Amino acid sequence: MKKTVFVDGQHGTTGLKIYERLNGRKDIEVIKIAEEKRKDPETKRKLLNETDIVFLCLPDDAARESVGLIKNSSVCVIDGSTAHRVAEGWVYGLPELNKEQRALIKKSKRISVPGCHATGFILALYPLVVKGIVAPDYPVSCHAVAGYSGGGKSMISDYAGGNVPDSIKNPRPYSLDLNHKHLPEMTKIVGLARPPVFTPTVVNVYNGEIVSIPFVPDHLEKHISAADIREVLAEYYAGERFVKVMPFPADDYLENGFLTFTDCNDTNNLEIFVFGNKDRVLLSARYDNLGKGASGTAVQNMNIVLGLDETTGL
């Protein structure tokens, strides 16, 4: 018998992408709520409790409300919001994090999908902290450049609507209070003593993301060159199907010296680059903010829970 799947928030940016990835699959049954019943709380309550897998693609408060409606302990919830990423009783849904994570995901009924910015930050930095190369109290800084789809429907309408003002056609740094909502998971999952200085920028491209973290090797626990850091990361992610550590030097993967932005779009792939030399190092993770940064990882988690090949539908 096919497992049933319900996407709560199907008409949002991430919900639509998840539905696209699930639509047409023969191994699951996607349950849709009728248009006229979308606002009916009893219909929603029924679906939340009668479906094997529930994806939550909702604002934080709405996600918490939906979780509160679920009384059936056999329902597996995969939450795309920020609401439960550092909450007790929830597993962080990043399969490549370490050797234990897939087993934790598989047996969990409460899985929180990482934030788009946090995904690249954690996958690039976590191995270096675990290996004792970067100390937990190192003053980490990080810059992210991401497409405007990460801002949801409101931001998409700002960029994609008519009469777009010149002011938003150019890159726009934001979260300038340095208190971005992804900081708690970035700090906790990596095991940092303090939050990084995180500066995101939105650009006039629909999707795509590059997250970059600079280091001064003299200030690390172990003085290590860019080439050696690349080898540490390559060994850590050896055999992973969606996380690829690119060669060092990466000149053959640059376009006239530029790291292009959208090469991983419409995939669940994430590429980690290491740039620099013995004195200065830059880690850069390139991926689709709507793919590995959201819907792709959500579906990957579902595949793990159901015992399917992780690449199914991806």
Summarize the structure.
It is built from 9 helices and 13 strands. It is α/β, with parallel strands linked by helices and 314 residues long.
Q: What do these coordinates show?
A:
Strands 8-9-7-10-13-12-11 form a 7-stranded mixed beta sheet. Strand 5, helix 4 and strand 6 (110-112) form a beta-alpha-beta unit. By secondary structure, the chain is α/β, with parallel strands linked by helices. The two termini are 22 Å apart. The protein is built from 9 helices and 13 strands. The radius of gyration is 20 Å and the shape is globular. The relative contact order is 0.15. The chain has helices at residues 13-22, 41-50, 60-69, 101-107, 116-130, 152-160, 183-190, 226-236, 291-305; strands at residues 3-8, 28-31, 53-56, 76-79, 91-92, 110-112, 141-147, 172-173, 197-203, 209-215, 243-245, 270-276, 281-287. Helix 1 crosses helix 9. It has 2 domains: 3-113 and 294-305, Rossmann fold, CATH 3.40.50; 116-289, Dihydrodipicolinate Reductase, domain 2 (2-Layer Sandwich), CATH 3.30.360.
Oligomer: single chain
Structural class: alpha/beta
CATH domain class name of the largest domain: Alpha Beta
CATH architecture of the largest domain: 2-Layer Sandwich
Q: Might you state the CATH topology name of the largest domain? A: Dihydrodipicolinate Reductase, domain 2
Mean pLDDT, all residues: 96
Neighbour order of strands in the largest sheet: 8-9-7-10-13-12-11
| Low-confidence blocks of residues | none
Number of domains: 2
User: Roughly how much helix do the residues carry, as a percent range?
Assistant: 25-40%
CA gyration radius, whole angstroms: 20 Å
Number of strands: 13
Overall 3D form: globular
Q: What is the CA-CA span between the terminal residues?
A: 22 Å
* CATH level-four homologous superfamily name of the largest domain: Dihydrodipicolinate Reductase, domain 2
Task: List the secondary-structure elements in sequence, H or E.
Answer: EHEHEHEEHEHEHEHEEHEEEH
Biggest sheet, in brief? Answer: 7 strands, mixed
The tally of helices reads: 9
Amount of beta strand: 15-25%
